[in-house]
Amino acid sequence: MCAADKLLNHIELLRKQMTEIAMQEGLSSKESVEISQELDEMLNRYNEIRQPVDGNSR
User: Fold this and answer.
1) What is the 3-state secondary structure (H, E, C) of the chain?
2) How far is CA 14 from CA 8, 25, 35, 54, in A?
3) How does 47-56 read in b/e, with b if 16+ C-beta sit within 10 Å?
4) Fewer beta carbons below 10 Å: N end or C end of the chain?
5) pTM for this prediction
């Protein structure tokens, strides 16, 4: 499994966690916000990995 696939798995896990916590505690709860911030970081990393090395989009 490559790094991008592992990252996607982690992203999906965070999405599920965030949804569960948000349903229980609300979207603005401390834990929801922390998970959301971690999810943002993981999505940014994934986008960096998936971008072509030379910076061209296609």
Assistant:
1) CCHHHHHHHHHHHHHHHHHHHHHHHCCCCHHHHHHHHHHHHHHHHHHHHHCCCCCCCC
2) 10, 16, 7, 30
3) eeeeeeeeee
4) C
5) 0.78
Q: In terms of C-beta density within 10 A (0-12 exposed, 13-18 middle, 19 or more buried), how is residue 15 classed?
A: middle
Q: How far apart are CA 19 and CA 9, in angstroms?
A: 16
**Residue 2: per-residue pLDDT:** 87
Contact yes or no for 13/48 (Cβ under 8 A): no
Query: Which token pair is 56?
Result: 């061209």
